[in-house]
Structure formats: structure tokens, C-alpha cells
Amino acid sequence: MQQISTRVFSDRKVSIVQAIKILKKNGIETNEKQVKEILDFLYLLAKMHSNKNAQDTLIDNTTGKGYRTSKHHLS
């Protein structure tokens, strides 16, 4: 699997140990390498979602309020 740069995700909140405990609690046995890949993937998805939301939101310079530009967003 391709290595994802961790510099993009400098504000990670879930540690490898926490992730292993959460997965184990839910019946999923993993090792440290697998958890690193899972977390990389989840943070990549979160980053993509965050960037998509930022692109869909514009700020009105006169009021300073943001508004959605996408017609297909969830309420």
C-alpha cells in the first residue's frame, strides 16, 4: 500500500493505541501496522470531506456570513 504523508494530518487526535483498543472492543483484531494504515485512510477521507465542504462554502464579504453553494448537501 502506498505510504500517505503524515504531514498533511498534523492535528491527529486518535492514537494508535486508542484505535487498537476501539477496534478490539468491537471484535476486530489488528496490529500496529494495520491500524496505521486504517488511520491514514480515515484521516485522508476526513481531509477530503473537509476540503469539499470548504469549497462548497463561500463567505459573503459584506456580512461575513458563510453560505453553501452546493445544491446536493445534507441538512
Automatic annotation (TrEMBL):
The keyword Transport applies. Residues 56-75 are annotated as: Disordered. It comes from the Bacteria. Keywords: Sugar transport, Transport. This is PTS sugar transporter subunit IIBC. It comes from Sphingobacterium olei.
